[in-house]
Amino acid sequence: MSSSGLPYRPQSDSLISEITRHFTPDVVRGAGSMSGESESSASRALQTSVPTVLSGVANMASSSDGASSLSTMIREGNYGGLVDNPISAFRGGSATNYLISAGQRHLGKIFGGDVSSVVDTVAKSSGVGASSATKLMALVTPLILGVLGKRTSAPGSASLTDTLLRQKDEFDAAAPAGLSRILGPGPRAVPSATRTVERGAALDAPTHIEHFTEPTAPVPEELRAVRTGGGLRWLPFLLLLLAVIGLLGWLLSRARAPHVGEVATRGINTATNALNNLSLPGGVNLSVPPGSINYNLARYLADPSASAPRTFVFDHLNFDTGSAQLTPDSEKTVTDLAEVLKAYPNAAVQLTGHADSTGNPANNQTLSSNRADAVKDMLVRNGVGADRISTQGVGQERPLATNDTEQGRAENRATELTVTRK
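The structure assignment produced for this chain is given below.
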């Protein structure tokens, strides 16, 4: 539904259509799992995020500085691989976290100080929480930049600015109601000669963007004497006053400077507050990071409308290099998972181990299988029935990302959990 309330129909060469074609059922499932939202809500948020971000990008491209910054974002982001394999952004783990962080930086450049208002608009329009909208918009943004990069780099293609501005009306029509009030009419253009622009004045021959210049405040009589040389007797007193003010400011800043211990304490408190409390059936309470596998799995199992199967990718689950030995910092992920599964005794799961393409394929398959078995063994030791857990190792046969980069290979050394029965 468009902001006008009428059904939105994309153009044949629509960027919106080109981007939303990447939202396959697997992507939508991953988005729901990663954000903790239902698949239908996650799908609405993804669909709403695309014209919203494109509207902001088109506004950005309407000035020469903005277009230059946008081109830099596209070039340095190098998101072409994400366009070829969009599911990799929604599987959780280090790759997803990296893209969320990068996407949030991009959104800050695109929308400036209006980011929070834009996110709230998308959240309300699609019926998801603000935190979920932030994550999904952050993941959609690199995908959009990747599509723009591929389209504008093709031989004979239009420039980036022409591509965006030609479809700007379509973006605005498909964006959620209220976005236009947040973004406003966009920057005003003035001739390249520097001049003061009165508010509301007509503008012609746009060549660059310039801020409005407010009328200059009159110079106080005392300072005017100093500036004109007729009152130099004031100068020593003025310099002394400025020195006193500077000294006071320096002393106050030192008094307010926090100690290193205080900074560390605030960092610890921030990390603690980042954990969410999960109250499970049976009275068990867990403190887990929002968006983690245990957080998303518990919400999914508690939702009677969510159907199986559903796949989740482990985060904070690592093994010693070349072995099936869990690292000590990964054990809490598995022990918390055991508590979640014990709270929902009807659930059955399958653990799937993956490997990258480095080394011998047969060895990779064996290692991935052993790692899935290691997670199962620990779950069983923590009280989950062995008959509820099946395992498999697929080695390098089902890559989750490209094996051409270190980041992709790291993502391929993953373990998945699929709920086969609720």
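Interim note for the steering committee: The first helix runs from residue 15 to 20. Confidence is low (pLDDT under 50) at residues 1-12, 186-232, 255-274.
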